[in-house]
Amino acid sequence: MHNLLERINDAFEGLSKRQKLIAEFIINHYDKAAYMTASRLGETVGVSESTVVRFAVEVGYEGYPELQKAMQEMIRDKLTSVQRIDVAHDRIDSQDILTSVLNQDIKLIKKTIEENNSEAFERSVDYLLNAHKIYIFAVKSSFALARFLGYYLELIFGNVKIIETTSKSEMYEQLFRTSENDVMIGLSFPRYSSSTLEAMQFASQQGAKVIAITDSTTAPVTKIADCVLVAKSDMASVVDSLVAPLSLINALIVATVSRKRDEVTQTFRQLENIWDRYNIYLKNGEHNSDEEK
C-alpha cells in the first residue's frame, strides 16, 4: 500500500471533509475497500458515489477503477485466509455463487488477453525449444499448475524436472546442476511464496533462462525473470482462481507442439501403441459391456 498511502498523505490536507472520510477508511480498512464498488464504498463511508470518484481523481488517478486496481494489486498478496472469506462475502452473490464465480473467471481471461505480450510469449517458446533441461517450480495451489505443465512438457521434450519439495536444502540440491543451457519456469501467484522467488533467483545466478508465470508485471518474481507471462488471477473466498493461468499454460503447450509438430507426432504415435498394447484406456463399448455383465 506504500505508493497509494503516499498519494493519500500528500493530498490529505487539500481534501474536503467528506473526502477525508474516504481516505481514513481506505487507510484503516484497505482490505475491504479494495473490492468495493464506488457506490458501495460511498454508502459504507456515508458519502455519495460522485464524492468517491472525485476523491480518486484528487489523489492522482484517472478515476475510481484505477484507484481500485491500485488497491487490489498492492494488497492481494497480503490478505489472510480469514480476510479473503470476508472480502468474498461482499463480492460474490450468495444467491447464485456458480454464476458469480464463472463470470469472475471470464473477466480474468479477458484481462489476460488484454495484457498479453506476444513477444514474451514467443521468446518463452524459443527458450523451451532450445533448453537442455526444463525445471518447473511452484508451491501451494500453484503447484497444481506446475504438475499439469510438467506432465505435457515431459511428454513433448522428455527433459523436464518438477521441483517437488518444501525443504530449502532439497530445493537447492535439485537445482544446483542448472546451467546456461537450461530453463527455469516459476509460477507465482498471491500470496507470493518466498521459496519460488529464491528458486528462480538461484537458477538465474546459475545462468539459466528464467520464465515467470504470474499475475502482474509488478509481482516480485518479475524482477529476475528473462520472460514474464502475465495471467490474471483472483480469489474466490479462500480458493485461488487459476483459470486464466491454466489457459495461458495451455497456449504455451500448444505453441511448443506446433513448433515441434513432426517430432511430437512421432512421440505420440509411439505412446498410442504403448497405451493400446497395455490397455491403458477403455475402448469404445467396453464400459457398456461391463454394465451389461
Overall description:
Helices cover 59% and strands 10% of the residues. It is an alpha/beta fold. It has a five-stranded parallel sheet, sandwiched between helices. The longest helix has 18 residues, at 97-114. The chain starts with a helix and ends with a helix.
Blueprint of the fold:
Layout: H1 2-11, H2 17-28, H3 30-33, H4 38-45, H5 49-58, H6 64-75, H7 81-91, H8 97-114, H9 118-130, E1 134-137, H10 143-157, E2 160-162, H11 168-175, E3 183-188, H12 194-205, E4 209-214, E5 227-230, E6 234-236, E7 239-241, H13 243-259, H14 261-277, H15 286-292
Parallel strand pairs: 1-2, 1-3, 3-4, 4-5
Antiparallel strand pairs: 6-7
Helix pairs in contact: 2-5, 4-5, 8-13, 9-13, 10-13, 11-12
Observed structural traits:
15 helices, elongated, 5-stranded parallel β-sheet, alpha/beta, two-stranded antiparallel sheet, Rossmann fold, Arc Repressor Mutant, subunit A, 293 residues, 59% helix
